[in-house]
Amino acid sequence: MEGLKYHRILLKLSGEALSPPEGTGISPQLAKEIALRVREVREMGVDVAIVIGSGNLWRGRTGLEMGMDRATADYMGMLATVMNAMALMDALEGLGVITRVQSAIEMRSVAEPYIRRRAIRHLEKGRVVIFGGGTGNPYFSTDTAAALRAMEIGADVLIKATKVDGVYDKDPKLNQDAVRFDELSYIETLNRRLEVMDSTAVTLCMENDLPILVLNLWDKDALRQALVGEPVGTLVH
Fold first, then answer.
1. What's phi and psi for 70, nearest 5 deg?
2. Cα(223)–Cα(49) distance, integer angstroms
3. Residue 101 phi, psi dihedral angles, 5° rounding
4. Is the distance from CB of 104 to CB of 132 less than 8 angstroms?
5. Where do the structural domains in the chain lie, given as residue ranges?
6. What percentage of the chain has pLDDT greater than the value 90?
7. Is 39 exposed, middle or buried (0-12, 13-18, 19+ CB in 10 A)?
């Protein structure tokens, strides 16, 4: 499609994007709503890859607070991301969008193993690829996994889809005078400790010149506007 600013994107979703009102578990209805937005982007001719977190099912720090081993808690989180990836795959394929789940932790009965060249081939064929299992290593967040996969597949931008319309200098839900940024540099993001993504992910993007766009997933027009270059959300570059 002519007029696109980005032709291949990595969409980073939090696990909470799938959370039902009670806060834990997976809501098939929310999975379908996300799938509708992804389908619209796919129909614009954009290659779409997705990394999803696990916060709706398991948080590693909850395990740590209960005395669990850090690596064990992290591996449990990685397994939870595969469950979320499968739920999203089901929603997408229910809408006719051909989707593949690739996992950094091998579980061949339910997902392909992560193979970079195969993932790129899927994207070239117009399939949506969902990366589960984080990086496959403990001590790394799904934010870092998203940055890593975005660079491996040659994405033009990493889109962090949230429930707010960009990055603020403080929590806009708690502070009415919070100021939203239209643009930020990587260094400013790190120095201000703004909660865009974790510092490892931001540093990885900075070192490889990969822009990060933070926008509101639930604004039905935000993704489309971003892809055609309209000002939306906060761009970190």
1. -60, -45
2. 14
3. -105, 130
4. yes
5. 8-236
6. 60
7. middle
Whether residue 41 contacts residue 123, with contact meaning beta carbons closer than 8 Å, is answered with no
8-236: CATH number: 3.40.1160.10
| CB 115, CB 149: distance < 8 Å | no
Amino acid at 224: R
Confidence class for position 173, pLDDT limits 50, 70, 90: confident
**Mode of pairing for the β-strands spanning 167-168 and 157-162:** unpaired
Report pTM: 0.92
Give the whole-angstrom CA distance, residue 112 versus residue 95. 21
Q: Quote the tokens at residue 159.
A: 């889109």
The string of pLDDT tens digits covering residues 24-47 is 888 899 999 999 999 999 999 999
Give DSSP secondary structure letters for 166-217.
SEESS-TTT-TT--EESEE-HHHHHHTT-SSS-HHHHHHHHHTT--EEEEET
Amino acid 1: pLDDT: 55
Secondary structure string (H, E, C) spanning 112-162: EECCHHHHHHHHHCCCEEEEECCCCCCCCCHHHHHHHHHHHCCCCEEEEEE
